[in-house]
Amino acid sequence: MSGSSRHSYASNRRVGSIQSVRSVTSDEERRNSRIQSSKPRQVAVSYDEAYSFALRVAFLNYLLQPRKKRKEYIDAPKPVHTRHSSNMSDLMKDFVPSGSSSSMKLPHAFRGQLEKRMTAVLQGTERLPGYNDAAVKRTFGVAYTAFTQRDFQKSIDKDRKVEPLVLIFYSSAIKFHSAGKPPDDYHWKSLVDRHLAMFVRLISSVIRDMGSDRDDLLARLNTLENKLLTNDQNLSLDKGQESSTFVEVEVPLSYEIKDMPMVLFVAKIFGLPNSQVQNDIDRNMTTWTEEAALKDFKNYQFRLSANMAGTLRKLDFDVDEAFEDWKRTETQQLAQIFAEILSIRPDLKTGGGPDKPLPSRPMSLYSEDQAFSDLSKMVTNRSSGNFGFDPSSGFSAMSLDDNSSIRSVDEPSYTFIPADPRPVYKTILQYVMSYDQLHSEEFPFSEESIDFLTELAIRWRIPQFMRHVTLVEIAVRKYLDQEISTMQLDACLDFVKEPQPEPKKPPPVNLFGATLLEVEPGRWTMTDFAGYQQAIKDLHDALLRELYTLLIQCYQPSPPSVGVVMSVLTNHVQTDPTFTERPDEMAEYTQHLENGLRQKAAEVYRGFLDANIPSNMEDWNFVHVVKLGSAVVGLAEKIKKRYRKNPEIMGASPFKVLVETIFPSFEEDAQEFIKRVLDMSKNRGEEGEIEVQDGFDLYKELVEIRKMHAESLPGKPFAFHIESLLEGFVWRWIRNAEARMTDFVEQAIKQDTFQVRSNDANDIPTDEDRHSVSIIDTFTLFNQTVNQIHQLEWGDELHHAKFMTALAKAFAAGIGRYCEIVDLHFAKEMDRQTPQEAAAGRSAQDRFLQYAKDAWNSKEKVEPFQFYPQSFVKLNNIEYAMQALDKLEKTMNVDGCAEAIRRVEGIKPLVRKAGKYVFTIKIVEAEDLKACDPGGFSDPYVVLCDEYQKRLAKTRIIMRNLNPRWDESIDITVSGPLNIIATIWDYDTFGDHDFVGRTSLKLDPVHFSDYLPREFWLDLDTQGRLLLRVSMEGERDDIQFHFGKAFRHLKRTERDMVRKITDKLTSHINHSLSHDTLKSLLSRGIAASMANLWKKRQSTVPTVTAQDVENTLQPLFTYFDENFAIMKQTLTDATMVAVMTRLWKEVLMAIENLLVPPLSDKPSTQKPLTQAEMDIVYRWLELLFNFFNAKDADTGEVLGVPSDVLKSPKWHELASLNFFYFDSTENLIRTSERMAAANAQRAREQAQATSAAAGAGSRMSAPPQLHQNNHNSNNSLAPPGGMTGAAAIGAFGSLGTIRRGKSIMMSRNLGTMRQAKLEKRKEAQADPSDDMILRILRMRPEAANYLKERHRQKERMAAAAAAAMIVRQSVNSKFGGGGGFGGQGQQELRVNKRMSHVPPVPKLPFGAGVSGGQVIGGFQFQGRGR
Question: Over the stretch 600-611, which tens digit does the pLDDT of each residue have?
């Protein structure tokens, strides 16, 4: 026990001597005496002794029970006749006072309620007392008959008065009770008065139940009732006899055990027959009397006062104040016991026997008379529930059977109280608990047992804390003897610590109702404290043994629960204030427990090995390892879940011990198993190859174990690298996916009808329904493939990145194949001529006849092209594929994978021998082609073949054009030099196509080692030339490269499809926006003016109105609307905007062709427009802009192409062209010179910055991109070689400006593609170009020399740039010496060392003067604007 609890009363401890029969004269003797008394006394109590005292207390309980009473009827004397109150006239006068004409009204529906209540009286169900008497029922029955007469009911319902009811009841009762009675018999009249009073009470009850507010009426009814009860009769008593009465008499005791419940219970717990117990009662009943009980308690009181043996003494307590508190309470409760006995035997109040009186107490504070006065007062006031007895009052005047003086007796001599009650109570308690354990559903005690034990405590004066301690001792002993379970032990300990239901009258037991925790151990006796402390210690040891036995079974399939044991140990032992736990003992126990758990875990793992691994090594496979891992993981998860709330038990963790024991063993065994299985599979060849899924299952199982290993054993690494051991299974799976990727795509396309998916033909399909199943199935396959790898949760970041790279390569191949097949089908579906294209291919005579026929038929409408819906679905599929591929790129975390590979392996240098290279060839345009048609035009298209005559690409057909522009690209993958041949053919509808010209170009990776794009003007072998733009990228096994390649496939396929669609509309655009249309519009104005002059003789020339200009485009708008309506039925919003954007580009090109000729170094025969023509063209541009923008006039919502898309760099060039268009040639040349010089200076600065960066360290990659402006790069005249000199690039302006081509890495997702487009626009706005000025100068014959000089300057700069490239390559390139550029029509450049120096910008042939003008793009220009 803690010091605070044991010495809570130490401050008031007595230090002097104690006056008693036995005195302790010294502190040392007193202390020794207390030490001896504190030891638990092992007093053996026999069965007979326990039974005898239990039977005595049970019999005394029978004797002291309140005596039962019964009614006995006796003949009553004939009562003297008294006047009754049957004069109804007098009563009614009092009920209805004089002066009152009528009584108060009864409530509505009162009669019905009254009849119901009277019916209840007759049926015996009336709730009011006194109405169940037979005479009352007969009287009410007669009155009920009178009440139910129809006339009377009507009268009552009408008048609603109470007087008729009373009078009818009275008359009916008089008539009934007077029948057959002699005239001189008046006894029945009082009965009539009583029954009438009961009827009045019933009326009052009905009125109250109806809630009627008639207080005056109820008061008068109450007055009438009281007058009728003249003889103070009680209406609640049903007196059935008139000539007799009854009296209550006490039932005498039978002294039979059948009337003694507690005695019967004693017989049960001791297993004795009732006859034997009855004999014991009969034999001792003369001794076991109330007088003997009174004598025992008087003797006990005396010994208590004298501190003698036979009661608890001061020596039994460690703290004196505790004894004094107990003694004070004990004295008060003894007074209650005396009062209880005297209330049963009042004759014991005075000494009526011959025995001598007990000697009086000298310490009594009251006299004998005062004591007897208080006791008499207490006995006569039993109903109060509190006897009010003064604990200090004595009983010296009582006569008790005592043969000698109490003062002369040292040892106690009781009849009902044992000499030492504690061991006897403890023995009986054990019998009671054993009996209830077998026969009662309630544990530890039944209600009957609790009453019996409480009776023992009352009679033997056992305090509540002693009862609790003895119960704990008995429960612990039974638990140690395995007589009760741990749960029953917990119930016993809860019983003493939880409050029990309080009785109405608390029994006189010290601290009754207090729990064990509510009584401080300092208030206990030392015997109880020592016994309790020993019991808790024994219980602690037993629980630890039980816990060890249960815990080492925790790895079994159905282990026993330790919850109850831990609950008892935690809640009742470790938290007990009397218990002290030693850390060294607990550490030893924890170690012992861990050793036991470790041994059991090893046994369990050996069992797993025997159950899951075959004994024959030849039979081993991954399934066995998976099963072994599953068993290990399953057990670990089960143990972790089972002990998740309490991971540690007594310092030992079953889960941690398990993983520390079996995980290392399993990891070592698993590594050995896997290696041997793989070796055996390798030796068996393909037949013994392990299934990929088995490898995946094994990996997942091992990963789960590794996760648990990392969580449980953070400082210990896993035994082996799982990924390195099982990496081959993933690569096998990826190779299988790659092998079937292309075939899957082909089968998906073959089974696809390319129709809009809609459940109902009348429903408008959403954008999600406008793509077909082939592309959905394709990307479903892609996502499932990626998810399969993701589900593995591969633990090696580098491996995972390489897996994703391999999958990206397969996806790129699948997408490329999909684009190839779909584009081929799309081209076949679109390979039909529009009416305009068919008309363009006819002879002049046929076209004249068709025009005449159309004019005759007044046919002005142009029929739209009948597109196939499946063609548009294919385009939708490509758009869907780009969106899905962008999502897939995010799912695969492409940038993260690429960064992971670079972080681990670094940036690998490009090695020529081991690499592949991708050449992107863009067929831009041709000039001055040979005319093959009778009309002086050709319908050219280009076919690219390699040196083995294998077709690589074919462009679209440009109708009736000798300067066609294709702008189509193709990718060619090479590992070495390759010669390509470009052949231009003239398309003919019938017969063979005509040969236009041929040229060739050698693609050598050595010449493109700087990865900069080149432009080649290749002369044809007939006439004219062809412009090709070539760029190269290394074919890399890089996930970003593969995704960029896939996006390029999709983007080019989309662009080609959109171009094929817009080509069907281009002829009408070119026809509507042509010089012929301009002339026709202006000629109509001239013709009108001539007619006006002829008719009206007026000389005013009318101008072309805005409406005339708009009407000119109305057929084009109508044609667009009709085609857009067809497209809108199938195309998605995104593809619709793409088509319209491409059409807008065609419109801008048509407008541009009206204004200026193409860019070239030769003068053009095209004439500049007049101011009137310029106004019309710009009005057309404005109208077309508004048409494509399609802004709602009311809401302002843009329904077409956004304005920022429409305002492209080309639109800005056309918008600013009017500023230079009418400027003088000298000013235009001067402006061009300044712009060229500014570009050269900017390029020089960038080159110097690049050289400084290159000098800081060696560069392994290609030179950085030279961010030069190229607003109209498609029309730029560029050098055929790479140019790195700043002056070389900038000196001749856009004629030599080459931007870095579109890299595959720049198109690896939609985000990078949008970023590249945004940067292109920013560059176009930042760097002004003089391309438009040079195109204007082509229409000025006087500028021919300037154009030629610019062209020669371009060639010189190209040679200088080539020389600089050769010098740089000789120093830095891994490919060896410099190289040239081969190809038909091109000679290899041979440059000496002097040409490595970049020459300054040569003097231009015209002076560079500055005149006033406007500032555009950072330069001052002189010109004239509108």
Answer: 999 999 999 999
